[in-house]
Design brief:
The structure is a homodimer of 888-residue chains.
Chain A lengths: L4 E3 L4 H4 L3 H17 L7 E4 L1 H9 L6 H18 L2 E2 L5 E2 L1 E7 L9 E5 L5 H9 L2 H18 L5 H15 L9 H19 L7 H15 L3 H10 L7 E7 L10 E6 L11 E6 L3 H6 L5 E2 L2 H6 L7 H4 L1 H18 L3 E8 L2 E9 L4 H13 L5 H7 L6 H4 L2 E2 L6 E5 L1 E4 L2 E7 L2 H9 L4 E5 L7 H6 L2 E4 L7 H9 L3 E3 L4 E4 L4 E4 L2 E4 L3 E5 L4 E4 L4 E2 L5 H13 L3 E5 L3 H9 L5 E5 L7 H12 L3 H25 L4 E5 L13 H11 L3 H11 L11 H6 L1 H20 L6 E6 L5 H22 L5 E7 L2 H5 L1 H5 L4 E4 L1 H9 L7 H9 L16 H15 L4 E4 L7 H10 L3 E4 L4 H16 L1
Helix pairs in contact in A: 5-6, 6-8, 7-8, 15-16, 15-21, 16-21, 21-36, 22-24, 23-24, 23-25, 24-28, 25-26, 28-29, 35-36
Chain lengths: 888, 888
């Protein structure tokens, strides 16, 4: 029974390894403040273990625990001199939930517990304030009725409002003791009506009712939903803090307030908070009265005329200031503190690390290092890498009202407004006349890439967080809302339906890739600021991290953006993306549709100079760094002509009729293209394609050398290998072309050959495969698809259900599935290094930009991760954190 | 150097562990016959290791080996008293290839080596037969010229034909010594012209030329192709046997022949062979003269008038008879023996296990057990399980000439003729008027199943050995040729092209599912006989095997066939196949297209009685055995209406318009259905479907119980699980329905719940998953697809290239990939049993009928395999062999 009930002054607490796990965040802090000598109302914590016992014991408390709780109640009585249910000096307590991490507003709290028809009189007598006592009692009935007895809150509120109307007053403060008396009676009647029982007069019955209700609120729908969203495990449970009540509503020498030790929005090192005279905590939160500023400075900044706490209660303010400074120093973090002043005496009810914007988080962390409060390591660990996203993309101005017409998945952050277009061509056309567009498609394909570039944002009706649209959009840094099943697109009429609204081509919409919202009309956006603090943190992170951070990029522009963000090379350059350009697609189609090797050769010769120039541009940007180039990977039919016009065009070029072209297109059709004729299987079937690509790479390298540009290390990557012999064959193809080009120019060209590990079999056969590989790059997108047997293009239909039902804790395309896919990565890393000690290991799936996955990569001992340009800073920070966590 | 050169009498041979690996099959047998005191011409074997050395030494023999060979040549000289190149008593030798396993006709042989312009005279003098000597010499030049000097054989043959024409004779025997003289000169001139060198007169030069040529023939195109087809590893190499020549062509007291100790076609225990008087071995094979029977009995049986060897050479025949009996007893197997009689002296040139039909193989094995020559274990191991196929399916009459118009993959054995139809409906229509049809489709889908049932055979233009068409056809026992890329189907004109020929609907074709041939017109077929010998072998096999053999079946008929063949239950009953019936498909479509749970319920209620009755029928057939029922697995859109008529039908039933139906169809479309919304994902999204299926199962079980039919053990299988929680959820769904039905009927129903392991993640998570599973069934089709990332529907495009190029040794959909997929099965088995010792493990993919895969399953310790009904006997035999091999 040692870990069940803790007095705030319990000496055991100091020895607890993870006090928050046992006591909850609030309880741990109360205990800690107690130890620091802060003015904390006496009380105790019922631990999270009791929550577990409660649920296992048919939602009842075992007798032994009840006994222990009663002992602690006695302790409070001893300390305060008050007695629970006493008719002279009654003890009132608060019963509050307190989980390991804060779940603001999700869980229940009961104040003023201990009042009944008798003790309320004693309280009135003792405080010499009848109105206050009655007010407390009605609050208690109201709260208890709602939380413990499940009576809807608006029924109580309605009675108060009615009463005020009848009396012709506006504010609660205008109600007197008689009003409360009347209302107390009505409240009790309501309780009787709703529960068929009288409002409990026995204070212990009240107490255990409250404890049960708080435990039960852990399983309330809103709490469950919140945990799902915040990835808080269900089994943690909540602790309960029982504390002697203090009152901020006993008169005008009382007040209650909330204060942050720094500005949680900007990070500025000034107090930031608000208070209310003669009020209880709930009044501050409820918003029925407008709270006032704490400091004179804040009051001045807000141009407010109301008196600040600093002015009206200078002595208490000075004490609060000392305590706030002490708390921040103690916790070494910005604190969010609740306080109450009862008859000029300051009580601290709660302290916790304050939530803050990412901008503030960075500034506070850097400032605290400067103030020598924390070291750089702590500063780095303080910042949630995922929040950096918001610093890099434009966001919607939150102050503006929005007409949301649909929601989808927040696939690529940032916000954008533009005219609705339904084709890539229209997006390009409007872009050329300087008009912003949002490309709306059922789903996108590689052919839409030029349109996605031209558009300011992308909205799709199908596809998940890692659908084509999502991945490409993130890569380009374009905002994207994907898989918005609420919209129905009608291409033929050039419109889409969302709810009851029809949006036509040319209408303006705004999408918010951070929230997944689709909004009618234009919403103003705020441009990202990359402040000096951000750079400072990045520099520190770079010094700590061991993983190299590369980027996935295949254009000069993306490469440049990534390098500016700190990328240390390219981990994935998808060569096929280079073929979608207007000039090239025709030649590429000719190549695919060739019946003979000769025809194919002609087409390949046309493509070679384009590809070479693309590589050269990228090599120049990435000078001095490694660049991994993946040879052609996707199934060929992705590139096929679709319209009759395109078919005719190709037929003309190939000098065959369009029927033959159609036949060939039909032949190339696949049932499951993801598992079809793609990757190295294309290289085996059509070696001339890979030969052309290698030639382009080597010629580009040679030209850079000739122009005395510091060389990149070209890492040629063979995709979709499942057996060592595939790589053996294609490695010798690469070597053969290298020799040819070296001989031609009489010069040496440096390069490596490796493969993607993106099939379970490749992972299992890593030992054999590594004999032919200078590097492995884990293609975790495809590896996740095959390990789970889930197509990310089709996962939208059920993955949401899976995550909502917690079948998957998290979308495995977003954060690496460490149990399944992760085990394959570990197997492949171990086996690969067994046979080839020098092998370089990296990851180039979408997971390369996910902090949890990056931590896994660091633990597994990979050499680098590669992610989309806009996630490079996130990856850098996450990689640094991963190293720092190893030391903890 | 100890394993390089072996005299036939070498004592070392007896100590060799695997003499065939070193000496080749022929060499090992020659040595063995030598030891047995048989009349074997003296000689030696150059081992397979020398072949390896030869290739590693730039295709030359190292000096030391040459020295050793010369020592052995001296030994032959000593033994025969003849000398190599001697002008009085010249030694002639044969140089023959001899690999580990026989590769008939693939590798080169040179006879009569040692003849030149001088020794030919000595030979003539010594044999007193000038014509014979000259004939030998011209044969030698001809053979050597062809094999060693690479001169095309027809050039020599042409000269002989010309000469005969000029002389006005028909047979070689009509040519005299002068004719041969003239031809020898012309042959030598030809050699000079073609090689710019004289025909080698130095006998040692001849000898080493021959040895090199034989080694080189290992890498000839035809040898490589043969090895590929027969799965013989390239690295084995060939041995070479050098043997003193004996002559069957020295006069009429000479002969040569080939004899089997039993009839290789029927297995009957009588000699079966043929011989030629005054001839060399090649004459028997070449077919220029018609050989005669060996025994009087055979002569009589064949109604031949030519004298048998038994009559014409009674003494030699008796000696041969003794030797044949001795050889068979020694080798304990039917022998295929080559012999030569030289001036009444019998020489045995070669013995080996004779090739035989599967029918003969079974009879011989059973007979030999009765004769106490071998035990039952050996008998079982003698039979290649795969050949049993030919005993179960009708085959084409080989004597009839065929017009082959295309080839495809031999996807399902058996042959069938019928009218070409292009739709399942037409197949059904013609079937109802008793007409045989061949269903020709680009590929088939589950909707074609009724047509596949109605047709006598299936031909597809796309899809591999495990495509839908192939799998279903094998399951039904329907012949099928799949992936015949040589045909082009034109549905609109109801015809297909093959080569230049156009085949219209209604034209008759024949398909041979054993060879993959598509033949114009009708070819008569031979019906399978299951003889008593076959049953005997099956009974023996059943006694030895440990694996249980189940079948994949979902109809009463298939279940019955399988049980007759010895199936011990059903390992996979695919419930979705039951929905394709005309009556049901509409209800099923209603269900899929329902927008609300209520509409879906209505459709499900209609389906329930059908499904229940189907189960009941199967349960009756399988009474007393386990039946594994897989709940709905494939993506729903496979079932969708396709034609406008079907769409209207569904729209009418659902009381919505057809546009809405189309929209819903579009919504259900998937990019990669194999990785989409299917398997247990359907059960999670639409629990009511699985609930209906469980209800049908439990009601069927209850009704069987009520009718006092011995119960089956129903094993309810949840497909496509990737995480334990999926199974946890669905297991409780099953239990919930079970409770409901048990309560309804106040009776207890026995059942188990398990899952398919068909995703790599499921294999890796087996420990967690096994907590909720009574059994695992490895779905190796899908597991192969995901492990390799290869869709079997699309693999046709490249898998053939992969196998031809030996990137894959064998199609992983045909024989289990033991390295990759096999490792996952081992991992899953180990981990599954770790957490659940009682778990039952089986396999239900196509591999369940593949002998090599079955051996793997036995080694891995699975409990059962499940295969299509027609493969049950194969599986039984393979399972017995697997156990017996463990003991070796």
């Amino acid at each position: 029974m040692s870990n069940l009930i803790f007095n705030f002054k319990d000496k055991k607490i100091k020895n607890l390894k993870n006090p928050k796990n046992i006591l909850g965040g609030k309880g741990a802090n109360l205990a800690e403040m107690g130890r620091l000598g802060m003015p904390v109302p006496p009380g105790f914590t019922i631990s999270t273990e009791v929550c577990d016992i409660f649920y296992k014991n048919k939602k009842k408390l075992p007798k032994q625990i009840i006994k222990n709780i009663q002992l602690e109640l006695k302790n409070i009585e001893k300390y305060t001199g008050k007695k629970f249910g006493d008719l002279k000096n009654p003890l009132l307590v608060s019963v509050r939930s307190g989980a390991r991490v804060s779940m603001p507003g999700m869980m229940d709290t009961i104040l003023n517990l201990g009042l009944n028809d008798q003790t309320v009189k004693a309280l009135a007598k003792k405080t010499l304030n009848v109105r206050f006592a009655k007010d407390c009692y009605r609050r208690f009935i109201q709260m208890y009725g709602n939380v413990v007895l499940n009576i809807e809150g608006h029924l109580f509120e309605g009675m108060i409002d009615n009463h005020k109307l009848n009396k012709g007053v506006l504010l609660d403060t205008e109600l007197d003791e008689n009003d409360w008396d009347e209302l107390i009676q009505r409240f009790k009647d309501l309780v009787k009506k709703e529960t068929k029982k009288n409002f409990p007069q026995n204070v212990l019955e009240q107490f255990y009712g409250a404890v049960s209700a708080v435990f039960l609120s852990w399983e309330s729908q809103r709490a469950k939903t919140y945990r799902k969203l915040s990835q808080i495990p269900d089994h943690w449970g909540t602790a309960i803090n029982v504390q002697s009540m203090v009152f901020g509503n006993m008169g005008n020498d009382c007040s209650t307030g909330v204060v942050f030790t720094r500005n949680p929005s900007t990070g500025e090192n000034i107090f930031y908070g608000e208070y209310l005279i003669n009020a209880q905590g709930e009044d501050v939160v409820a918003g029925t009265r407008t709270p006032q500023h704490i400091t004179k400075k804040a009051k001045a900044a807000a141009n407010s005329k109301e008196t600040s706490m600093e002015e009206i209660m200078p002595k208490v303010y000075q004490e609060l200031k000392r305590i706030l400074e002490k708390l921040e120093k103690h916790y070494k973090d910005m604190q969010d503190v609740e306080f109450t002043v009862e008859n000029k005496k300051l009580w601290i009810l709660q302290t916790r690390s304050g939530k803050r914007t990412s901008e503030a988080a960075i500034k506070i962390a850097v400032d605290m290092v400067k103030e020598k409060l924390i070291n750089k390591e702590k500063a780095i660990l303080r910042i949630d890498p995922n929040t950096l996203d918001t610093l890099l993309h434009p966001t919607l101005d939150k102050k503006v009202k929005k007409k949301i017409i649909a929601k989808g998945l927040p696939a690529s952050p940032g916000a954008a407004s533009g005219k609705v277009v339904f084709t890539a061509e229209e997006a390009e056309r409007l872009n050329s006349v300087m008009q912003n567009t949002i490309l709306v498609r059922v789903e996108t394909s590689p052919e839409d890439i030029h349109g996605m570039h031209a558009a300011k944002g992308i909205l799709t009706a199908r596809g998940g967080m890692t659908s084509h649209a999502a991945v490409v959009a993130r890569g380009m840094g374009r905002p994207c809302v994907s898989g918005s099943t609420e919209i129905t697109i009608d291409y033929s009429n050039k419109e889409f339906k969302a709810g009851g609204i029809i949006v036509k081509e040319g209408d303006t919409i705004t999408i918010d890739g951070a929230s997944g919202e689709v909004i009618l009309g234009t919403v103003p956006t705020i441009q990202p600021k990359i402040s000096g603090y951000f750079l400072t943190i990045m520099n520190w992170a770079n010094a700590f991290k061991k993983l190299k951070i590369r980027t996935n990029a295949e254009t000069e522009k993306d490469s440049r953006v990534a390098r500016e963000f700190g990328a240390e090379g390219i981990g994935l350059c998808r060569t096929e993306h280079m073929f979608f350009d207007q000039e090239r697609i025709l030649s590429f189609r000719e190549m695919i549709l060739s019946k003979t090797k000769e025809d194919r050769s002609k087409a390949l010769i046309k493509l070679l100079p384009h590809q070479k120039n693309d590589f050269k541009k990228i090599f120049k940007v990435m000078s001095g760094l490694p660049v991994t180039i993946r040879l052609l990977d996707p199934p060929l039919h992705e590139f096929l002509p679709k319209t009759q016009k395109e078919i005719n065009e190709v037929a003309l070029s190939l000098k065959i009729n369009s029927e033959e072209v159609k036949d060939r297109i039909d032949e190339l059709h696949e049932q499951n293209p993801m598992l079809g004729h793609r990757g190295c299987r294309l290289g085996i079937s059509f070696p001339d394609i890979y030969e052309m690509q290698c030639e382009a790479i080597f010629e580009a390298l040679f030209e850079c050398k000739k122009e005395k540009i510091k060389s990149v290390t070209a890492e040629i990557m063979i995709p979709l290998v499942s057996a060592d012999i595939e790589l053996k064959i294609l490695r010798s193809l690469v070597n053969h072309i290298a020799k040819k080009i070296q001989k031609k120019h009489q010069t040496k060209i440096e390069y490596m050959v490796g493969t993607m590990i993106e099939l379970p079999r490749a992972a299992l056969q890593a030992k054999e495969i590594s004999k032919y590989a200078d590097f492995f790059s884990f293609g975790t997108n495809d590896l996740t698809q095959t390990t789970f047997g889930i197509s990310r293009d089709d996962s939208g239909k059920f993955l949401k259900d899976y995550i909502n039902n917690r079948i998957f804790e998290i979308d495995p395309f977003v954060s690496l599935d460490q149990n399944g896919v992760g085990e394959l990565i570990k197997i492949a890393s171990t086996r690969g290094r067994q046979a080839n000690k020098k092998i370089k290991l990296g990851i180039c799936g979408e997971h390369g930009g996910d902090p949890k996955s990056i931590e896994f990569c660091a633990k597994t001992g990979l050499d680098y991760v590669s992610c989309s340009p806009f996630r490079v800073p996130i990856a850098i920070l996450a990689a640094a954190q991963a190293e720092l966590k190893k030391l903890i």
